[in-house]
TrEMBL record:
Residues 16-101, 102-206, 215-312, 313-350 form the Cadherin domain. InterPro entries: Cadherin-like_dom, Cadherin-like_sf, Cadherin_CS, Protocadherin/Cadherin-CA. This is PCDGF protein. The keyword Membrane applies. It comes from Peucedramus taeniatus (Olive warbler). It is a single-pass type I membrane protein. Pfam families: Cadherin. GO terms for cellular component: plasma membrane.
Amino acid sequence: IGEWTLPGARFPLEGAQDADLGTNSLLTYHLTSNPSFSLALKESSEGRKQPELVLERALDREKQSSFELVLTAVDGGDPARSGTVQVRINVTDVNDNPPVFSKGVYEARVAENLPAGSLVLRVRATDADAGSNGRVSYSFSNVHGTISVLFSVDSDSGEVRTTGVLDFEEKNKYIFGLEAKDGGGLVSHCKVQIDITDENDNAPEITLLSVSSPVPEDAPIGTVVALLNVKDPDSGENGQVSCELSGEAPLSIVASSGGSYKVLVLAKALDREEAAFHELVLRASDGGDPARTGTARIRVTVLDANDNAPVFSQAEYTVRVPEDVPVGSVLVTVTATDGDEGLNGQVKYS
C-alpha cells in the first residue's frame, strides 16, 4: 500500500470457503486490532460477504514499513469453527494506481462440447503507473476446483480459454472471479459469467418400465401391453421426442399425461393361430437438426384362448359292415383337430 493512500481506502481480501450448508456455512470475519486498519464486509450480488481491509489513518513508510495482521473467519455453527490467514501489508513509496478493469462483469455465451483451448472471452485491465508497477497479470480469484479444471486464464493477455469439456446437461452457467495484479502488488477484481448453450449431443433414451407378455389373444382392444419412459436430456427442440412403431404388430403407442411416459396398447384383436408372437421396434427421434434417434425392441407373446372348436376331418362317415362282425372290431377311425394349443387343443371323443 502506497504511503500516500488516503484513509478510507479499501482493499479486497480473499474470502474463506466453508463446505457446510445453511447456517453452518455463514461466515463472519475478524481482524487483529490495529489503529491503522479495520475490517469491512462487502456483500456481493450472490449474497457472499467479501472481507475488505480499510485504511483508517495515513501511513508513513519511514516510521513503519510493514504490518502483520491476522484475518479470522468464523462460521455460524454450534460450536463455531474458524480458520485464520496472515495478512502482511508492505508500505511502498510508489505504485499509487491499482489496475482497473474495463468492465465489472464480463459475459460470454458458448456452445457445449467446445474443443479444449477454445477462446471464451478476453478481460482487460489498465494501470496508469509506469514500469513494473503498470504491468498487469491476470489470475483466478478464489474459485472452486472445477473452474480451474474447465477454464484457464492467460496471465499476460487475459484470455479465458476452455481446458475441459463443457456439458450443458451437467451445468449451464459458470460464474467466477478474476483478479488483475500489477507489479507493485495492487489488485482489482472482476466477475466472469459464462452461459453454456445446448447442442444436440444426446440421443433419446427408451426405458421399458413394464411389459405384459404373454397377452391373451382374446384381450380387448385398448389393453395396455407395455409402459415405457422416453427422455432426452437435451433442452428445447433438441429434447422434444416423438415416437413411432415399426413392424406389423397390432399395437399403437399413446402418450400419457406426464409427457415422457408412453403406453403401448392393442389396436386390433389378436389371433394366436395367425401369429404366436409379435416383434416390433420402437423408435424415438428428437427435434434436433440433424435429429438423433434411440430404439428399443419389444417381443410380445400371444397366449392362447379356447376360441376354436374341434373340427372333424369329415362331416359324415359311412361304414358298411357284415352282420356277423365280431364284437370289438374296429369299424372306422374318426379324426378331429383343434387349432388351439395345450389343453385347449386336446380333443376327446364321445
